[in-house]
Amino acid sequence: MIHPPDRPSALGAGGANAIAFAIGVVADEWTLLILRHALQRDVLRFQDWQELLPISSAVLTSRLRHLCEAGVLVPQEYDDRPRRFEYHLSPRGAALWPVLATIGAWELAWATDHGERVTPLRHRDCGRHFEPVPACRTCAEPVTQREITAAFGPSGSWPRSAPNTTMRRRSSGSTSLGAGFFPQSRALIGNRWSAAMLGAAYLGAHRFSEFQRRLGAPATVVADRLRTFRDLGVLTASGSADRSNRSTYRLTDKGRAFLPVVMSAIDWGQRWFLAPEGPAVVLGHRGTGHEYALLLLCSECRAPLSGRSIEAAASV
Ligand SMILES: [Zn+2]
Ligand SMILES: [Zn+2]
Questions:
Q1: Rounded to the nearest whole angstrom, what is the distance from the C-alpha of residue 253 to the centroid of ligand 1?
Q2: What is the pTM of this model?
Q3: Per residue in 165-180, pLDDT tens?
């Protein structure tokens, strides 16, 4: 499936929706690392990614192919003996910067126990290291999770929001452990049930039975993901600890802080992948009467961020 990279692609009626498509692209660590170098260091060539990343030729080849099929990268021949290609970000690919910026900021702030240091970002306009602050594109006010309302739109449902196997890059062999750069983000959105469980938590699910009912997921899967989310400190459980069905699960500050990542991915998906029935999810800015779309502000100077105004800073 090749998508025209400069305009939104139409998705099939009744099939995977924009959320599924976005998760299928961004829930892979190698893909995020390839995009991070493309966005922040203008990397274009196979050998340059290979020099910068501990990635095998086979994995890099498969990820570049997937990103070209999704219209995120566009191959351009730069040598014909032998034929060699550069991979340029399309407008759709360049529009992924909020996902990268929010994942990097979250890992830096909350996932402090992994070995690989995430490079902080610098805002060119004010010259300072910053965190992206979620705000509302309509009124430009900063928002918290509680100020955003969400409901499934005409193409929304849990089954349609889960990426299918052709969208997801299944790792094999030694790469199945992931790249180790965004391990906690990967645990949160790296498979269909995790992403859906997180979505259900943001939409107000608190009990085991609510997660199970909303998602239609097997009980063992729900129990496994709840345990993972508790281990990561994204959810806390209160109530009877030994009877999971009686426990009440609540998002922690760490869990709520991940919301901008999810919002960025949804925002990107809904802008670039259109289901004929309409949007997958409809967001509102609570108490204002207007729809909600994500805007990211610089935490230091409060100016709206853009892809071109941010760069990777030297590690601190
Ligand atoms: Zn607003
Ligand atoms: Zn700034």
A1: 22
A2: 0.88
A3: 555 544 443 334 456 6
Query: What is the DSSP-derived secondary structure letter of residue 234?
Result: S
Specify the number of domains making up the chain.
Answer: 1
Over the stretch 241-280, which tens digit does the pLDDT of each residue have? 555 567 899 999 999 999 999 999 999 999 999 889 999 9
- Has residue 4 been placed in a domain? no
Ligand 1 centroid to Cα of residue 265, in Å, is 19
Q: Does residue 3 sit within a domain? A: no
148-152 vs 121-123, strand pairing mode? unpaired
Burial of 288-311, coded b for 16+ CB within 10 Å and e otherwise, reads eeeebebbbbbbbeeeebeeeebe
DSSP string, 142-210: B--GGGEEEEE-TT--HHHHS--TTTS----GGGGG--SSSHHHHHHHSSHHHHHHHHHHHTT--BHHH
Question: Which ligand has the shortest distance to the CA of 291?
Answer: 1
Note the ligand closest to the C-alpha atom of 137: 1
- Residue 81 domain-assigned (yes or no): yes
- The domain in which residue 266 lies consists of 9-312
Within a domain: residue 109? Answer: yes
